[in-house]
């Protein structure tokens, strides 16, 4: 089996950059009651959460996530469990990290995290959703649908696209995930899972070209 390609080909760059920018909500950092680290294959979520915690952005982190086919080999004990371990290694104290180990999609991430916090009597008026960079828009739309009373902002580890792809080590994985998340913006809104989000024509056209190029493994 050939090794995954770790650098972005020039033929894909413009379209991938278009989707990458679209999914970044470009939110200004603000302090909140809780940081919620959404499980995925990207350990950078835990790195970002730890950095924001240590900067005083919130006093508590909830890491949420079980496993998916794309994460079981990388995080065999579960996404949230591995995230917590990484955050502790980065200096976050154990008492400041809660784990929600059952969620298997973004809707469950939000719903189950609410249950964990409510079960501990923790009132939440604001939250920072911490995700891989290209999950921001979908996470935001989902949270606004399922937890509308909470003021939500999004954050991710701040990396240039090329550096992010190199860190993951697999262009196809990143592009497939970007394409899949773009499709879900419309599909999940239509299904009532998330609030609608505007999608400019240039984003739709970039999405369609990447689908035609074969990046379909994460399509519904």
From TrEMBL:
Name under which the protein is recorded: YdcF family protein
Any one of the GO CC terms: plasma membrane
Domain DUF218: 46-153
UniProt cross-references to CDD domains, sorted A to Z: YdcF-like (cd06259)
InterPro entries, alphabetized: Cell_Envelope_Assoc (IPR051599), DUF218 (IPR003848), Rossmann-like_a/b/a_fold (IPR014729)
Domain of life of the source: Bacteria
Pfam families linked to this entry: DUF218
């Amino acid at each position: 089996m050939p090794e995954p390609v770790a650098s972005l080909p020039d033929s894909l760059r413009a379209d991938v950059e278009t989707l990458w920018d679209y999914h970044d909500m470009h939110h200004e950092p603000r302090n909140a009651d809780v940081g919620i680290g959404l499980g995925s294959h990207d350990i950078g979520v835990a790195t970002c959460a730890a950095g924001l915690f240590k900067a005083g952005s919130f006093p508590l982190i909830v890491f949420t996530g079980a496993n998916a086919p794309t994460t079981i080999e990388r995080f065999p004990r579960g996404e949230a469990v591995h995230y917590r371990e990484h955050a502790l290694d980065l200096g976050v104290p154990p008492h400041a990290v809660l784990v929600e180990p059952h969620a298997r999609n973004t809707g469950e991430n939000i719903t189950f995290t609410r249950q964990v916090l409510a079960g501990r009597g923790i009132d939440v008026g604001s939250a920072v959703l911490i995700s891989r960079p290209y999950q921001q828009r979908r996470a935001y739309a989902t949270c606004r649908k399922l937890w509308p009373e909470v003021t939500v902002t999004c954050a991710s580890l701040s990396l240039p696209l090329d550096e992010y792809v190199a860190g993951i080590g697999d262009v196809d994985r990143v592009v497939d995930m970007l394409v899949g998340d773009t499709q879900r913006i419309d599909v999940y809104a239509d299904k009532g899972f998330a609030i609608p989000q505007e999608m400019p024509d240039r984003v739709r056209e970039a999405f369609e070209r990447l689908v035609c190029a074969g990046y379909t493994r994460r399509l519904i």
